[in-house]
C-alpha cells in the first residue's frame, strides 16, 4: 500500500502552504460558480405530478410545505427492488435536522419510483425522518432524468433537483446527477481531506485503495445497519 512521503514538520508546512494557495483559489472559483448557478434561468412546471406520502396524495406544489424553495433528492429505488440503493442510503444518512434549511425557506425531500408501501418499511428500518415520497405511476422521474430510458433498458441515477415557488407557480431551477452530488455529501467530502481519500481505484495517487483494514471502494458500501463495528 502506498502511503504519503515522510518529511520534517518544516517541509510539511511548506507543502501545506502551497496547497493552501490552491485551496483558496478553488474556494473563490466555487463562489463564482455558485453565483453563476444562481443566475441560471428557470422553467415553469405546467405538468401535474402526483406523489404518495405519509399524508396521502400530494402535488409538487404540496411538497414545498409552504416554503419558497424545494430540494428533491432522487433516491434510486425502482418499483421492482426490495430495498433502496446503498449509495443513496449513505447519502440520506447524512441529512440531519431540516430546521436550518427551513429557516431559509427551503424544504428537502427524497423521491423514488418505488411504491410507498415499499418505501415506508425501508425508511423505518433506516431510521430516517426526512420526508420521502413515491412518484410511482407518474412521469416525474423520467421528466427530471432520474430514470433514463424505458422498459428493460431503463436505469436509475441519483441526483438533486431544485425548485422555486412564486405564489402558486412552480419553477425548475437546477439539477445535477451522479458525481455532481459528491460535494454535497459530507462523508465523501470528509474522506477527500484524508491521506487515503475515498479508497476508490480511480483516485490518485494509486495504491491507496486498500489497507489499514478498510474495505476499498463504493462497491463494498453497505446499509448502515450491516456494518460490524
Question: What's the quick description here?
Answer:
The protein is α+β, with helices and mostly antiparallel strands. It is built from six helices and ten strands, in the order αββββααβαβαββββα.
Overview of the structural elements:
The protein contains 6 helices and 10 strands, in the order H-E-E-E-E-H-H-E-H-E-H-E-E-E-E-H. The protein is globular and about 65 Å long. The strands form 3 sheets. The chain has a 6-stranded mixed beta sheet with strand order 1-10-9-4-5-6. It has helices at residues 9-38, 86-93, 99-102, 116-126, 140-143, 186-191; strands spanning 43-44, 50-53, 56-59, 69-74, 106-112, 132-134, 147-148, 155-156, 159-166, 169-177. By secondary structure, the protein is α+β, with helices and mostly antiparallel strands. Helix content is 28%, strand content 21%.
